[in-house]
Amino acid sequence: MFERFTDRARKVMALANQEAQRFNHEYIGTEHVLLGLVKEGSGVGATVLKNLDVDIKKLRLEVEKHVKSGPDMVTMGKLPQTPRAKKVIEYAIEEARALNHNYVGTEHILLGLLRESEGIAAQVLMALGLKLEDVRQEVLNLLGAGVDEEPAGLGMKMAPAIGRGKPKSKTPALDSFGRDLTQLAANDELDPVIGRSNEIERLIQVLCRRTKNNPVLLGEAGVGKTAIVEGLSQQIIGKQVPEI
Fold first, then answer.
1. Which residues sit opposite 104 in a β-bridge?
2. Residues 134 and 205 grouped into a single domain
3. Alpha-carbon span 48 to 105, nearest angstrom
């Protein structure tokens, strides 16, 4: 079921498991998934909540008002999901399919939580003033995507979002999967790279080819692959690379 989940979406589910254990629960409910989503904090789903002015601290408090701790016990390992939590995952997969995404991200999980309207998560989100349509539109604005078909079970048409809202980033989808090393270099947040000039030069040569210009860095963990790319990013910002 989780094969197409992004790393951040998988992390949300792992954090949901932790939240359930924190409450001494023997199951993962929609409330735990919501807490996992806000605890992850850096995915598109969390960004949508922030953009819609959701007070994350208040959200956590509202969830804890609805949820009571279970009896003192130690539950280890992966906990089972409630039927509603399973439905959230099904809805998340539907939302990803409706957006023509070949992955399931935190934004799709957020939409799934709202669509499962009888779950505690949806009740909390709606009590904070969130509406499914507004959240879906903000997701579209962030990703700069649009669909013109009605996904199964939604009961509404989704119009293209391009031009409706100004994206907060030029590459929001990429931002949800990785780090912008060039921006980090521009902000002087990368450490100096020493002794990698030959590797960086070779990387530049491959990138400058007209064809076969996709370099691959291979090596064991810790040998310095990331440092080479960081060095290239610093040279790009320092205008020490050829203009193409």
1. 5
2. no
3. 12
The angle formed by the CA atoms of residues 104, 42 and 217, to the nearest 5 degrees, is: 75
In the structure, what pLDDT confidence band is assigned to residue 108 with cuts at 50, 70 and 90? very high
Tokens 């992390």 found at: 11
Res. 55: pLDDT tops 60: yes
Alpha-carbon distance of 202 to 206, in angstroms, equals 6
How far apart, in whole angstroms, are the C-alpha atoms of residue 29 and residue 17? 9
The answer to whether residue 52 is domain-embedded is yes
pLDDT mean over 141-155: 48
Statement to judge: residues 91 and 27 lie in one domain: yes
d(CA 24, CA 75) in angstroms, rounded, equals: 7
Burial of 27 per CB tally in 10 Å (0-12, 13-18, 19+): middle
Residue 133 exposure: Cα atoms within 13 Å on the Cβ side: 5
The chain-wide mean pLDDT, for the chain, equals: 81
Report the alpha-carbon distance of residue 100 to residue 112 in Å, rounded. Answer: 16
Evaluate if pTM is beyond 0.70: no
